[in-house]
Design brief:
The chain has twelve helices and 14 strands. With 262 residues, it is α+β, with helices and mostly antiparallel strands.
Length: 262
């Protein structure tokens, strides 16, 4: 690990100021610290967000569920508000990593990192959520830009994510047995504005599947999802699976998600 300076921000303004000077935000640290240990990341200054109270919490806000950026996965999984309002998010959070990851990792850290196989980006895209920062509100469709890349500016801090409550929703993933990251994960939501289907683990970044959305928009059934042929072009190829394998999994998992949504 390379040498670095450590700052513990007390307010969002403090954090934004430090980030504007080249600092790197530290949320749960489950990805960043590991990358630093391997010398894959070399931030000169770490800006710890853990002490900022306004970044934490879960609340119902009209027809949406708002989750603070520094809310831990385990807190989402255990929340009575989440379980009664958007239970799919509690289930998703419970399936992330292991106990340590769930008790340290955060919602905001996950989507800011935008790992290609992370679970939260699929939920944000699948529900058409809004990412709230210290400067603006960013629609999910505009937030994820590519592998480990988002629309965030250097001095921008995610403060919360607002998830609209859908009619139906479910998330199914085929996990790597060691890391619990998704080889492929599919989030399906039937919303007031139509069906949204988001895929993670299959490509360099989470994405929406228009073929599945079109098919399920006509008939919201497991058979309709399973019948869709996904184009493997542009999908990931690694020791865990070929693009063709992942394309097949997308349709299969989408059909299971529709069945789980009821």
């Amino acid at each position: 690990m390379y040498a670095f300076e450590y700052q513990r921000a007390k307010t969002v303004a403090d954090a934004a100021s430090a980030l504007s000077k080249g600092g790197k935000a530290l949320a749960g640290g489950q990805s960043l610290v590991g990358a630093m240990k391997l010398r894959l990341a070399q931030p000169g200054t770490l800006v710890d967000l853990a002490g900022i109270a306004e970044l934490k919490g879960i609340k119902k806000d009209g027809d949406a569920l708002v989750i603070g950026a520094m809310t831990r996965h385990a807190e989402v999984a255990a929340s009575a508000v989440v379980k009664s309002t958007l239970p799919v998010l509690a289930a998703l959070a419970q399936g992330i990593g292991d106990r340590q990851v769930r008790n340290m990792g955060t919602l905001g850290g996950s989507i800011a990192n935008n790992d290609p196989a992370a679970d939260w980006p699929a939920a944000v895209l699948g529900l058409g959520a809004t990412v709230i920062t210290n400067k603006r509100r960013i629609a999910a469709d505009d937030f994820f830009k590519g592998m480990y890349e988002t629309a965030l500016a250097a001095d921008e801090v995610i403060t919360a994510v607002s998830f609209p409550v859908p009619k139906k929703a479910a998330y199914i993933k085929f996990p790597n047995p060691a890391s619990r990251f998704a080889l492929v994960g599919v989030f399906v939501a039937q919303t007031a504005n139509g069906v949204r289907v988001a895929v993670t683990g299959a490509a360099p970044s989470a994405f929406r599947s228009k073929p599945l959305e079109d098919a399920l928009g006509k008939t919201f059934t497991a058979d309709a999802a399973k019948a869709v042929k996904i184009d493997p072009k542009g999908l990931n190829a690694d020791l865990h699976g070929s693009p063709e394998y992942r394309a097949h999994l997308i349709a299969v998992l989408a059909s299971r998600a529709v069945a789980a949504a009821g």
